[in-house]
Structures are given as structure tokens and as C-alpha cells.
Amino acid sequence: MRDEEKDQRARIGLSRWALGALSGALAAFAALAVAELVAAVVRPQSSPVVAVGGASIDATPAPVKDWAIRHFGTNDKLVLELGILVVLAVAALALGVLAVRFRRVGTAGVLLFGVVGAAAAVNRPDSVGFTDTLPSVVGAVAGALLLYVLVSRLTAVRPSPAPPAPVTEGAGVGSPAREDWDRRGFVLAAASAAAASAAVGVVGRSLTTSRGEDAVASRRRVVLPAPRSPARPVPRGAGLRVPGISPFVTPNGDFYRVDTALVVPKVDATGWRLRIHGKGVRRPTAYSFDDLLHRELIERDITLTCVSNEVGGPYVGNARWTGVRLAGLLEECGVRPPSRGGPADQLVARSVDGMTIGSPVEELMDGRDAMLALGMNGEPLPFEHGFPVRMVVPGLYGFVSACKWIEDIELTTFDSYDPYWVKRGWARRAPIKTESRIDTPKPFARPKTGTVMIAGVAWAQHRGIDKVEVRIDDGPWQKAHLAAEDTRDTWRQWSMPWKATRGGHTLTVRATDRTGAVQTDRRTRTIPDGASGRHSVVVTVD
């Protein structure tokens, strides 16, 4: 065989493998598009990407989850979804190449991915049953059929018959290689599949969006009544006018969001119900949204903190919440705290997405402003923050108190049930630790010599902040100016002017709460019950 014929055959072989990989990619695209469409009809949470992503979150060890939140912040879910799509893309390319040689094996691989997605969907905590498997199954079948059709166009390469030719001395004998496959059929099928998949995906996305329109409309119709017990006006001087410091009230759009929901639940308030039942509940009751809306409402300024917040981290925010006293509802149902002979010491709140959060009954009924919140900063709760109803409990980290999209409350005991985070190594009880943060200057800032304002926030919810001190390098602790206190359930701003001298400096802050406890310098991880230590920043003064 002549060298040019060998080269041509090699190019043809490579072309077939490349087209096989393209076939795999198109099959995956079609499978995901069809799955998206079916999920829009069944329910968005049954989408294979969402189901597999949720299963991945559940199976991820707590330290890895914590690492993801620390490095990706509120983009951790987007990173996970992109990672899943990258894995699917690589697998699709490989299955396409495999199908060129082993057509049935390649298509069976696509079906296997459907089985994985279906298993993940049906085993989610919020699964509604067999119908949750349909998006993965139907999508995989569509993808497998498309891969089979496309690869069938890529038949074996055979030498073309050629008329006899005179043989001269030193000349090779052979036939020119040619591509013996349905080029036109493949191109038409591939182009049609790509266009159809794109159209199906657009329709599916549109249907998914329209499914949430009733929930959006129900939120738009909500008018929060004037609270019977309004929050007092924020004291003058609670917010310092220092550039770079966090605002005293965190706007809804800037409030941190840390949860496991890959798809934000959009719940129609008109059909929402909350069931209260369990151990020691003498009068099990179900409440509608209107039931809560027309009860006596309270309004309180409360600072929330996520247990995943590292020392000096961003996952803390202050808002004005409107809602119904949780203790009042529990008492109405006949619940008593353990200190008064109640048999239940744990309240398990369940979300519409299957999340379970356990809270200590004693703390919920000890007189603090624990509530089922309906409003945030003067408007109905945003969907991202739990519309129509969520729990807010001052003094407890969110993973043991702040159930969003709540739909069920069960009274039980800590010994008989472990909620979601406890099963993954986190603590059963977690009061918020006394912490402080330097907001300005930022780490590695380069301020000029002269007076530099050091400022930030400190919090010790339900105990209150008594004092904040700042240390420059290894010098003595200096008392900072505290802004006016709103309530003991909110953070406090602080500031201290510093006569900065040229060179590198380390600035450290510590807070003291109203019990006299001083913020510890002992560094601990966020797991199992919140990070501890003192925040410091390094700056260079020019």
C-alpha cells in the first residue's frame, strides 16, 4: 500500500472517531433537553442534573461542603452543576467514540446514565414517587436512540473498486480509500437533532418558568398587615458613617444565602399548609398562609449567622423580620417546653425540598422572639429566603433554626431523631458564638500614613455586645467606639481611629458579650458548631 493511501485511511479513521464523539455530544444534548421538558411537566426538582446534584450534595462529606462554601460562596451550587455537566460531556464524547465500534454498548451506556439519574431522583427526600424517574428515563431513551441513528450512518471504511491498471516495475498495487458512509444523511440527522434539541430545551425552560408563575403571583398579592408588635425605630447612631463598613440593615438582595437547594422552591402561598404534630402535641393543627397572615404579627430586627461562616467571613446579615410568634403557635397546639414537663425536647422543621432542621424546644419557648417569618425588610419573603414562610430564631445558628420553605413541624426528642446536618457530623445544639469582624481596611490594603479608621461589626445574638477592642501588631488592646445598640439580637457596628505609621501592620479585633465572655483566640473549624478565633487583617501603610 502506498504511503498516501495509508495516510488517507488514517484520516478517514480519525474522521469517524471525531464524528462518533460529536454523535455522543448531540445525544447528551438531546437527552438533557428532553429531560428538561419532561421535568417541566412532572416537577423541576426531578430534572436529572438537579437530582444528581442533590444526591452529590447529600453524599459529600461535611469538610468538603465547608470547603466549597468557603471558596465558592453562594456560587457553590453553580460550580456543582457545571461540574456535573462537564462530567456528562466527557462521558458523552467517550460513549460516542465507543459506539462507532460497538454501537449497542455505546447506546447502553447512555441508558445507564438514565438509570443513575432516575435512582437519584426517586431517592431524594422530597421525591413524590415513580414520576420523578420519568425525566431521566425518557431523556436517556431519546439520547440512546439518537446516538444509534447517528452512528448507523458511520459504516465501515472499505476500499473502492478500481479498474485494472497496467503494472509497471516498482509501482504499488492497490485501490484508493474512500469514505463509504452516508455523509449527507449524517449531516442532515445531526443538524436536525441539534435544532430539535435546542427547541425542546427552550420549550422545557419556558414551561419550567411558567410553573412558578402562580407562586410569583401569590407573592405579589401578599400585603403584610401592620404588625401588632412593631419593631422600635433603629436608634440614631446605630449605623456609623464609615466608608467600607457593612450597612446596619442588610438589603434583601445582599443577604447571604447558604442552603442545599439547587432549584429555589417556588411555593404558591394560596395552597401552602403548615402541619404541627408529634410528641406532646395535644391539638395537632394545620395552618394556611392566610391563617398566619391574620394572626397577631410581630416585627423584630434580628441578625442571622450561618454556621459555615469562617472567622471574619461574610455569612452574617441583619434584617427586619415580620412574622408570628412560634411559641404562641406551639402553646396553642398544647406543646410545653421540657422545663414545664413537656415530653419533646426537639422540634424538627421540614422544608418542601425535604430538608430537616432540628431546634431545641426549650430555646424556642424561652421568651426570645422566635418566629415563623412572613416578611423581610418590609416586603414578603423573597423566594431565595424562604417564601412563603421560614423560621427565624435569634441566638441559634441557621442549621439548627432557620428552616426555609417550611411546611411541617414535628415535636420529638434529640435521642429519637437526627436531622439532616446532625447525620453529617454537625452538632445537635449550636448557639451563636461571640464574634467580630474588621470590614475596613480590607486585607492587604495600602492606606496612607496618618489617621486611618478601623471599623467593622460584632455580634453575640441574644446576649448582646458589651465591648470591642482592637490591637495593632503586638501592642495593647485598645477600646473601640461602639455604635448605638438596637437590640441584643442584632449586631453592633464599631470603629477606632488609628494613627497609622509606615510599614506592615497586623490589625486584630475581639469582642466581649454581655455575659462577660471574651471572644476566644483559639481557632476552630466551622464543624461541628461554628468557627471561633479572632479576625485580623494585614495592611501596608505607605
How would you describe this protein?
With 542 residues, this protein is α+β, with helices and mostly antiparallel strands. The protein is built from 11 helices and 18 strands. The chain has a 5-stranded mixed β-sheet with strand order 2-1-10-5-6. A hairpin with a 4-residue loop joins β5 and β6. α2 crosses α4 and α6 runs antiparallel to α7. About 3% of the residues have low confidence.
What's the topology here?
Blueprint: H1 3-42, H2 48-59, H3 62-72, H4 76-101, H5 103-122, H6 134-152, H7 183-211, H8 213-221, E1 273-278, E2 285-288, H9 289-293, E3 298-305, E4 316-325, H10 326-332, E5 346-351, E6 356-360, H11 361-364, E7 371-376, E8 379-380, E9 390-392, E10 406-412, E11 435-440, E12 450-459, E13 465-472, E14 477-479, E15 481-482, E16 492-500, E17 503-513, E18 536-541
Parallel strand pairs: 1-10
Antiparallel strand pairs: 1-2, 3-4, 4-7, 5-6, 5-10, 7-8, 7-9, 11-12, 12-16, 13-14, 13-17, 15-16, 17-18
Helix pairs in contact: 1-4, 1-6, 1-7, 2-4, 2-5, 4-5, 5-6, 6-7
How many strand units? Answer: 18
Q: What distance lies between the first and last C-alpha atoms, to the nearest angstrom? A: 75 Å
Strands ordered across the widest β-sheet: 2-1-10-5-6
The amount of helix comes to 25-40%
- Portion in beta strands: 15-25%
Q: What structural category characterises the helix and strand content?
A: alpha+beta
Rg over CA atoms, rounded to whole Å, is 31 Å
CA-based shape: globular
Order of helices and strands: HHHHHHHHEEHEEHEEHEEEEEEEEEEEE
The number of helical runs is 11
What is the residue-mean pLDDT, rounded to a whole number?
Answer: 91
Low-confidence stretches: 156-160, 167-177
Major sheet size, sense and barrel closure: 5 strands, mixed
